[in-house]
Specification:
With 121 residues, the protein is mainly alpha-helical. The protein is 51% helix and 11% strand.
Length: 121
């Protein structure tokens, strides 16, 4: 799935860096300071929820939009989401798996435009 999403986003001229576990992701974020982070909640090593919380709690990274991809979002919306979970995660957007490629591209574009708008203010 990761490679498919990378191909989709690169096809829209986005530069994509991929990691496959939480520790690699954290290291890549520190090295690259990306414009946007697409994050799965269920990762080996450091889990995505902890990574998201730590990023949004850190002034150096809190302005980087985080798009969470999860098979859990649909269940979360009914009970826990968006109240408790959204407060903890503070992700900017959520997409359910399986991912609709067009929806992914739209969400990425929206988040990057919002970030640019905030930077221009």
């Amino acid at each position: 799935m990761v490679e498919a999403l990378k191909i989709i986003l690169e096809g829209k001229s986005y530069r994509v860096e991929v990691t496959f576990d939480g520790k690699q992701g954290i290291n890549a974020i520190k090295e690259e300071k990306p414009d946007l982070i697409i994050l799965d909640l269920l990762l080996p090593g450091e889990d995505g929820a902890t990574i998201c919380h730590n990023l949004k709690s850190n002034p150096q990274y809190k302005d980087i939009p985080v798009l969470v991809l999860t098979a859990l979002a649909r269940e979360m919306k009914g009970r826990i989401f968006p109240t408790m979970t959204k407060k903890y995660l503070e992700a900017d957007e959520y997409l359910d798996k399986p991912i609709n490629p067009q929806e992914l591209v739209e969400k990425v574009g929206e988040l990057l435009q919002e970030k640019q708008g905030k930077a221009d203010e």
